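Working notes for the structural subgroup meeting. M.R. asked for a predicted model of this chain before we commit to crystallization trials. I am recording the input and output together here so anyone reviewing the notebook later can reproduce the run.

Input as submitted:
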Amino acid sequence: MRNVIRADLGRLFRKPSFYIITVLILVFLATRESADTAADQIEYAKSYLNSLMLFGVSIPIFMGIYSDDFNSGSVINLIGKGLSRKKVIFAKLLDVTAVLTAFYSVAYIIVLIKNMTAGLAVTPNQNLSLLVFCLFCILRGIGFFAVASLVVFSTWSTSGGMTVLLVLLAVSRMALTMIQNKFTMPVYDLSFDGLLDKSYAIFAAGNFGWHIIPAIVIYIGGVVLLSVILFKKREIDL
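Returned structure, recorded in token form:
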């Protein structure tokens, strides 16, 4: 499985589009107009880290780790040589986790430098809160990729997986919030995004946000388990 991860990451890091998109996203983060207060600066950073940044970086990650591999037939060759389908699924999600973690680590450092150079009195607690928020962004990305992976491995369609990923990133939060407000049903509160939001708010207040447990167990663990089951049953031409 290590060879699969190494090959996936090598393929991704050879793509000029990956560097172009990530550099543009990080440059925009670094050059955004600073806020007047430290609290506003942190909130602006959080908004960007959780929306446009995650959306933008997810596209080249998906293309490099999923689309290129499937289009070239490499994943079929690996399975034909005896690599278990479960390991293929886990390898892809470990790739995603590694890249998102590296990317958000750089983004966090950029925000720290920007806070210091802006002359704003950002407290250690605010910086810690931002770090935890970055971890939640990574977790959110992993969850969305897990769902996209489910579509890819159950339908053998990378375009379907990409569509689902973009929908989750772009409109899922807004759509679920609108439904919850209109019909007074806790659909958003019980969703992956809703559980993560509640958990982060509690963590930021200095307590343990237990909502993170069902978010991980149900919406990541459950989806990955379903992917494994469906992929094992799927007939593919080796």
